[in-house]
Design goal:
267 residues, alpha/beta, 8-stranded parallel beta barrel, 40% helix, binds 3-methyl-2-oxobutanoic acid
């Protein structure tokens, strides 16, 4: 593993070489140090912190101040990994609002990339941010911030029309300037096809092993949420002696294409 800091160019080169990218959510300095030392390329300061740290039922209550605070905790502790920070619910209601919030995540939070959820309505915002030199990670498929509109956390892209929409949105996000794409809870065949169509790295969660990389919520990987463990996650701590071993096993499984396996790929 090179000690050089990971950039979006590093990740693009990994995709070209066919090397899978390991990503985990991270919300504090202690885990940032551990994940960084374990070779995780991407630390995602996800708004999932609203659920796993704060105990909310959804990510909707998470505020910009909280995202800035946790991004700063993570970014000051890592030396190598790239920090991607979520723009929380309605932070991108207009492109100008998104620009102001992205500035906070980069300048106060120390993140290198901002992630935003949404398809075509977010296209102008991705263009605006990219034009200003902001590295953007798009997020398609299941959009947890829209849970009340969706009526639950359901797999997306399972019928022809919605698969076609997600495929179209993914290409549009790349054309608009996105540097990365997270695909959440879509069928494995669709995710693999999109990863093949795009030149930017596609990071999957609940999207099968055919993506360019994988992301999991750290607390799911550590089995801290057994009653509500997603079908696509794996408890990497089970049968291992330490958190460091669990993280190392996750990184190795992602690199080898062994995670997710068939039992962790519902569609
Ligand atoms: O907030 C988050 O942790 C995320 C991942 C689930 C991709 O967006």
């Amino acid at each position: 593993m090179s000690a050089a800091p990971v950039s979006v160019a590093t990740l693009a080169a990994m995709k070209v070489r066919g090397e899978r990218i390991a990503c985990l959510t991270c919300y504090d300095a202690s885990f940032a140090r551990l994940l960084d030392a374990s070779g995780v390329e991407l630390l995602l300061v996800g708004d999932s912190l609203g659920m796993v740290l704060q105990g909310h039922a959804t990510t909707v209550p998470v505020t910009m101040d909280q995202m800035v605070y946790h991004s700063a905790c993570v970014s000051r502790a890592r030396t190598r990994a790239l920090v991607v920070a979520d723009l929380p619910f309605l932070a991108c209601a207009t492109p100008e609002r998104a620009l102001d919030h992205a500035a906070r995540l980069l300048q106060e939070g120390g993140a290198e990339v901002v992630k935003l959820e949404g398809g075509m309505p977010m296209l102008g915002t991705v263009e605006r941010l990219s034009a200003q030199g902001v590295a953007v990670c798009a997020h398609l498929g299941l959009l947890p911030q829209s849970v009340h509109q969706l009526g639950g956390y359901r797999f997306q892209g399972r019928d022809h029309a919605s698969a076609e929409r997600i495929r179209h949105e993914a290409l549009a996000m790349q054309d608009a300037g996105a540097s990365l794409l997270v695909l959440e809870c879509v069928p494995a065949a669709l995710a693999e096809e999109i990863a093949g169509l795009l030149s930017i790295p596609v990071i999957g969660i609940g999207a099968g092993a055919g993506c360019d990389g994988q992301v999991l919520v750290l607390h799911d990987l550590l089995g801290l949420n057994p009653e509500r463990a997603p079908r696509f996650s794996r408890d990497f701590l089970r049968g291992r002696g330490s958190i460091a071993e669990a993280i190392a096993a996750y990184v190795a499984a992602v690199r080898a294409g062994d995670f997710p396996g068939p039992d962790e790929t519902p569609y």
